[in-house]
Amino acid sequence: MERISFDSALETLAESDKWLTSLGIATKRDRWHTAVEMVSKAKAQREHIDGGGRLEPIRNYVPALFEALEILLVKRAFSNDGSPALRDKLSRAVGGPDSPSREGPKSSGPRKTMFELALAADWKTAGADLELGEPDIRVRFGGAVFAVECKRPFSAHSVRANIHDAASQLGILLDTPGHLSSFGAVAVSLNRVFNPETRPWLAPEGTGSQILTEVLNKLIDQYKYQWKWNVERLHRRIAAIMFYLAVPWDIGGERLIHLSTHRFFGQSKCEQGFRILQGGVSQLYPAR
Length: 288
Hints:
With 288 residues, this protein is of the alpha/beta class. Helix content is 45%, strand content 18%.
């Protein structure tokens, strides 16, 4: 859960250009800069309302603020990382349509990459030892290495195919010399499935995490037969399938918070790997 003031956000986001430039990424008019501009507009809007002015609608307001929160998450976690893998992912993540409503299957790649970065940033900030690259994330829990392949299905109909595609990629990787003792995990973002236009999640303070977890469980239960993956197609060292959901949480119109939750499904062929993975993630988020 990410909380931040407008001033703090603008200060950190203003440093993003220097950070991207230091990594060899040319700054330009892109989705990240649109998000920065939206934070400035949001601050001005708040000051205008506090001064007695009327609320004036701003196009793509909430989605851009939500993406700004993800940018802050990533910058904080990887500001000292100058690896080629980070540079490659950032180069891809800054692009794409500025509004989710303009996104299509062929233009959804940048936000899929942003999911990889946001998930890795969340884990890293919580204390995980990880690296970016191929696979998307390599994380260490309990002395074991987990290769994590991330997917962001464009619709509910493509979730199962995305799981099988990720499992296939991991299956090839886990049989290579450098990964013969590694475990695998598939991470699936349901953001686009549940909330394609990134609408704000309205819930009273103190209840967001619980309600969002309930929503994720209901979503999984709703599609459990349609999403049921073929266990036989999973490599014996793929420990789990993880479903992830993040939303912009609006608390009384006063604060917008990046709120996320997840749920793991362990694989019977890899009980040891699942126990290690579950234990490691539980240590990162003891309150979840």
